[in-house]
């Protein structure tokens, strides 16, 4: 499994990488702009991501906007439904506005509230057929 971890906080990024490294290759982006660039590059190299774990609150470009751009890139390539990358939005915010925005506006696959445990993350990944 190839994963893109998008997280601006060093400690959160380190924890996510430790949780996911045993499942395969993990790349890191520190904001939404880097995430969109990494996503596009992976597609161009014919080595797309299977999973993107993306924080919502980040500098330069937040997770909502990055997700919208990722979905737009996929639509432009004719990818939809099961062909889309699985995106788990991660955030410290557990409020309905962010949930609605992540799912309905952005097209997130799922949503996890921090702190993220290995059990919750693995359960979420399994539920999307990635394990």
Largest beta-sheet characterization: 5 strands, parallel
Strand order of the largest sheet: 2-1-3-4-5
| Mean of residue pLDDT values | 91
Q: CATH superfamily, please?
A: Response regulator
Shape: globular
CATH topology annotation: Rossmann fold
Number of domains: 1
Q: What is the architecture at the second tier of CATH?
A: 3-Layer(aba) Sandwich
Low-confidence stretches: none
User: How many strands?
Assistant: 5
The computed structural class is alpha/beta
Strand share of the residues?
Answer: 15-25%
Counting H and I runs of at least 4 residues, what is the number of helices?
5
Protein name: Response receiver CheY associated with MCPs of class 34H
InterPro entries: CheY-like_superfamily, Sig_transdc_resp-reg_receiver, ST_Response_Regulator
Keywords: Phosphoprotein
Domain Response regulatory: 2-129
Furnish the topology, listing elements before pairings.
Elements: E1 3-6, H1 10-20, E2 26-29, H2 32-44, E3 51-55, H3 63-76, E4 86-91, H4 96-105, E5 110-113, H5 118-127
Helix pairs in contact: 2-3
Organism: Geobacter sulfurreducens (strain ATCC 51573 / DSM 12127 / PCA)
Domain Response regulatory: 2-129
Modified residues (4-aspartylphosphate): 55
Task: Provide an overview of this structure.
The chain is α/β, with parallel strands linked by helices. It has one domain: Response regulator (Rossmann fold), CATH 3.40.50.2300. It is built from five helices and five strands; from the N terminus they run βαβαβαβαβα. A five-stranded parallel beta sheet has the order 2-1-3-4-5, with helices on both faces. Strand 3, helix 3 and strand 4 form a beta-alpha-beta unit. Helix 2 runs parallel beside helix 3. The mean pLDDT is 91. Keywords: Phosphoprotein. One of its GO terms (biological process) is phosphorelay signal transduction system. This is Response receiver CheY associated with MCPs of class 34H.
């Amino acid at each position: 499994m190839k994963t893109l971890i998008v997280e601006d906080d060093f400690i959160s990024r380190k924890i996510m990488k430790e949780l996911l490294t045993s499942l395969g290759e993990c790349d890191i982006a520190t904001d939404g702009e880097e995430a969109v660039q990494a996503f596009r590059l992976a597609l161009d190299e014919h080595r797309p991501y299977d999973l993107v774990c993306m924080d919502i609150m980040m500098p330069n470009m937040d997770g909502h906007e990055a997700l919208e751009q990722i979905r737009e890139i996929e639509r432009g390539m004719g990818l939809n439904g099961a062909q889309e990358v699985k995106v788990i939005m991660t955030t410290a915010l557990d409020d309905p506005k962010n949930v609605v925005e992540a799912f309905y506006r952005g097209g997130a696959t799922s949503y996890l509230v921090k702190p993220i445990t290995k059990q919750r993350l693995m359960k979420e990944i399994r539920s999307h057929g990635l394990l």
